[in-house]
Amino acid sequence: MTSKYVHNKFRSLISSLTGATTNDGCVSGTCWILDLPPEIIQIITDYLNLHDLTAFSQACRPFYDLINQDSFWAHRIHKQFPHPVAQLYTSELYHLPEMIQMTYESRTPDFLHTRPESELDRFAITSATRYNDEAIERSHTKMYVSKDEFLANLHYFQFRTPINLSTIPFMKLIYFYLIDRKRRAAVNMDVVHLNGSYLVNRSDRNSLTGHVIQLQTVCWLEITGHFEQKIMPGKYEVSWRMKSQAGSIDLYGETEFLVVPSHGKMLIKRVADTDFRNYAIQYNDQWFTVSMGAIVIYDPSVVFMAIRNWNNGYWKSGISWDCIELKIVP
């Protein structure tokens, strides 16, 4: 069902009930639908997708005004997301918490592969020191962002980011942030030995991003990057999309998947060579997604990621990477 079809149906319905509509689609008479409580109309809109909502808002001015209210989008957030997520992003996140000043004991992240000079490793020390479970409990650390800071750092990955945010209901911006797919393509990361021989940038029609990094054969495996825009506070499930080549993956030893926010709890996921071989058997040469775990962000953060495997002297081959994705979870 197209949005144009829905738009025309709404206009036809209103026209049949009132006798006429104006040139801009507004009701010229009195329509009994508009006498329904807003809560009932809200329930009706729960069954409309985003394209249909656009058509609905264009049917008449009262519908347009309804959809451009914070209460409308707050209801939609509570309807579509688990209660802890909805409560956090409609209310709790914007209340400045009381922080306890404390001295932190420096800790070192438990990495198998380290690069002390890299930004990821430097922020990993901050994460291990300030955002371990004990430090979070002692300092009463809570997620927080002011509405002004949220707007200043807002960027959509799947949708076009509006230019004039002040004219848009804040809860509408939040709703689109929640449903936005936060992805970073592997081809937009720094890939050691990306030279057309060891690792290759290839186009792939089944890729979500258009191009992928294909591992031909390499001894030192290192892919690093970061999301260019800050990610807002919240808990995010991290997943990597990948596939084997000809049903075989040879990544000897343990491969580390690291994700480190500049202000939050990091993720260290180690995948053994046997796990990769099982992925190849299960999915053959089809794309598959592996959940790596979760990160927790307490303040707007730059999020760094890395794939590392270089401690053993074995050559590695047989895998392609498409993208990393962050998904908000309770």
TrEMBL record:
A Pfam family matched in the record: F-box-like
Gene3D superfamilies for the chain: 1.20.1280.50
F-box domain segment(s): 30-76
InterPro entries, A to Z: F-box-like_dom_sf, F-box_dom, PP2-like
Protein name as catalogued: F-box domain-containing protein
